[in-house]
Amino acid sequence: MRPIIRLRPETTRRGLVRQRNKIRFGWFSGWRRRTSSRSNQIRTPMRLGLFFVLLFGTLSGVSAQTVSRFPLNVLSFNIRYNTPQDGLNAWPNRKEIAANVFTAYQVDFAGLQEALAGQIADLQDQLPAYGWVGVGRDDGKTQGEFSPIFYNKQKFEVLKQGTFWLSETPEVPGSKSWDAALPRIATYAVFQDKRNESQVFVINTHFDHISETARQNSAKLLISKIKELSNDLPVILTGDFNTPDASPSIKTLTSDSTFKLTNTESLSENPHTGGTSTFNNFKTDQRGPVIDFIFVGPDVAVQRHDYLPILKDQVFISDHWPVLSRLTY
């Protein structure tokens, strides 16, 4: 893993700068700039291509509402519970840093894990341009961890949403199976782009941290539910899977014979940046595994894939680095 960049208030590149009492991420301009030239080169043919896809797709009975060429910035982010035992890295010291990732990277969709109701409220207070969907895993309402999906409500509206439990009784709130240590959920939504009415299916989850049997069965259930609920729309899956990509449960996710999910890192047109692990355990020298992923279905292209190792004044953004991908479909 590359050395972690320690962000200081005076930093002007790859860092946080404080201006008018707000935190900005100085390295976003570079991240955006590395992807803009190619987009400019293909803008005109892309528009023509979109016209013909819409025309012939409509004539052939294929829904034109699945077609979009606006880039999407998608985040998978385990924000870590609000627990005082984290000391300097407790949520009250991290919440501003966490919220600023959304605006600094112009995030369109963010799948969060370990989000409690109070933390969601904290983020909403700082992010008025974003809405969210989700429920607590303990009671299907407000109790326990959420796996919410935040979305830019200026660009997208929710057409459909729901949550199911990763268990043998997925519609029963609080249920768990397969020796799972805790109830686990997946929250999903169909979003429609207000700019061109294209639609996309986004789903977010957090697998069990103890039982590999639970993770494998959760992967099977997840694939089944995606096929059932996505209605052939482009699919984006975010999550903390608590297991590396070579594990049986991840292979279950990516090897289904009738619906293929792919890790966005392997599809990225640009080289991955941000190191070699996503779990840092609040340690600068932690070389933990990659357990946080963004997967996409076959209709989605990937321009960029990055981990975001963010520190400010020795405060970690979380005990997981956020994962960021730029996508088109």
From TrEMBL:
Keywords recorded for this protein, A-Z: Endonuclease, Hydrolase, Nuclease
This protein's record includes keyword Transmembrane: no
Nuclease recorded as keyword: yes
One matching Pfam family: Exo_endo_phos
Domain of life: Bacteria
Domain Endonuclease/exonuclease/phosphatase: 75-320
Recorded GO MF terms: 3'-5'-RNA exonuclease activity; endonuclease activity
Database matches in PANTHER family: CARBON CATABOLITE REPRESSOR PROTEIN 4, ENDONUCLEASE_EXONUCLEASE_PHOSPHATASE DOMAIN-CONTAINING PROTEIN
Protein name: Endonuclease
